[in-house]
Amino acid sequence: MRTPALHWQIAIGMLAGGLLGVAFNFWGGDGVAELWGGRFQQLGGLFLRMLKMVAVPLVVTSLASGVLGLGGAAHLGRMFSRTLLYYLVTSMLAILTGLVAVALIRPGLGGGPRQVVAADGVGGGGLGEVLFEQIENLIPANPLAAFIEPNFLSIIAFTIAFSVFALHAGGDVARRVRTAADTGFAVMMAMTHAIIRLAPLGVFFLVAATTATQGTDVFVSLSAYMLTVAIALAFHACVTLPAIVRMLARRSPWRFAQAMSPALLTAFSSASSNGTLPLTMECVEHRAGIRNRVGSFVLPLGATVNMDGTALYEAVAVLFIAQMHFGRELPLAQQAVVCLTALLASVGSAGIPHAGLVMMAIILQAVGLPAESQGIILAVDRVLDMARTSVNVWSDACGAAVIDALEGPDAPEAEAT
Known about the structure:
Blueprint: H1 6-27, H2 29-68, H3 78-105, H4 127-137, H5 143-148, H6 152-169, H7 171-196, H8 199-214, H9 218-249, H10 253-270, H11 273-287, H12 292-305, H13 308-326, H14 332-347, H15 355-366, H16 381-407
């Protein structure tokens, strides 16, 4: 008998955990429900601890491997600058779309009146003060301390700088550092895949803990959360990115989407942008007619550092959790922190299933929310993971089309074979 696919295993774990938790909530009494809810939370917390365990090495190796994969300091030129600018702009647009969707729908508040409260972990200063604190975090006074704490903003900034200067050093130095980064990334991908196989059990215990202590009411807000993410992803994928393709790449968004459909469907079913990468490159070059030298540069880099869907999802999820946790909305300054941190965290998200869960702790930490609070959204993460991965791959493909158009027919090496 064939083992069910992982998403089916997670769905089964979610259903079984929900039924068990509801049974304790309805018939166990408050004392029993709280007792077993606490035990379920402890067991589910082991899964979350494993996710946090791989977060730092996964970010470092994934990001370093992507930057070092450029092949030499000479490639840090016009195409690299344009590619990074495109990735930053589209990721920021995706995050802003998510923030607007949360502000309009208020999934964690049940559509109630708007209230604002500061989270415990962030000071009550103005927007400029809060943003300057995050900028300071980008420059670690002690990189080793940043890795130990961990301070993910410092880790991401230091890793990018280290990788860029390794390319600048060139020669054997760059080759050895790249080999180490690629090797470490392969190991961390294998470890993360192994941990993700435990997701059905983690979901089972975490959903059981939530429903045992809160009953079925929690899923009312969860459905609103799913709707918020879906609407925001659909807007970014069907409005924002097609508009960019039309204006900058001078292509028909519909025809380009048709050319990319095999890769988009594969990304949806596999929830892995890295796993879809070979097919994405095939569709971009042979179905969409984009030059190989552009696709082979833009797409591998995008599979590592360009995560529009993940950035949007993380921003919505954190604001949703904050609304449920505090019963109120975060102020503008802290939403700006979420925006900046989600942008930087998405850069370090590896293109593997559920990588967003690993990165979620970064943003929760930035606004003073407990990492364990992400447990509630694990119940529906697989469905949303499939959707946001498709958006990630779609954004990568749109980026290849834009860069191909901007490079022009007379760009250097355009005739290379």
